[in-house]
Amino acid sequence: MSRLDQLAAIGSSYDSAASNYSALVLEDLSKQPVQQGLLAIFAKLAVGGRVADVGSGPGQLTAFLHSLGLDVFGIDLSPKMVEQAKSNFPELPFEVGSMDELTQADRSLSGVLAWLSIIHVPDLELPQVLREFHRVLVPEAPVLLAFQMGDGSKHLTEQWGADIDLTLYRRRPDAVNEMLAEAGFHVVMTTVFEPVGRPGMQVACIIALRT
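The line above is the sequence of Methyltransferase; the predicted structure tokens follow.
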């Protein structure tokens, strides 16, 4: 499957699941103190300009960053998910877009958040996505990547009460740190945690600064 076909499948899958997904995750952040703390660290580093929440889904993380004082907007591949986000948080800007090819100008952003949004990017495509994040960030601006830790991939055909066509890629932090270094980032923090209510799930979180 070509990358364009993969992107089409991702967008279509989240379109199908948008309403159910939004209902399931919208209030989850309030139950996740570790995630809130990591986002607060990111917010302390992402100052002075606009910040992109890439893969913003129904907008709950965009809204949280806004509550921390950031000038933040959301980007998502799924038009239906963007509609959900605009309905949930009408005061915030959201747009349809792909992390593979962001529309923002070079050195125009003060931060990029990608929380569980690189999980659908194949290993061969991830370096290009990281280079794109590097392109749009000003020097010393942070990127935060969160992803499921592990090995290999899993194909999903049904989730969130909808028929979908998604591949989930799990990764090891060391491998992602190497890719970040090659893309021009300096890693300042790497941690792994288990979200509340998800026993056995390991989420890796990396914060790196653009050099």
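Note on the example: The chain has a mean pLDDT of 95. The longest strand covers residues 185-193.
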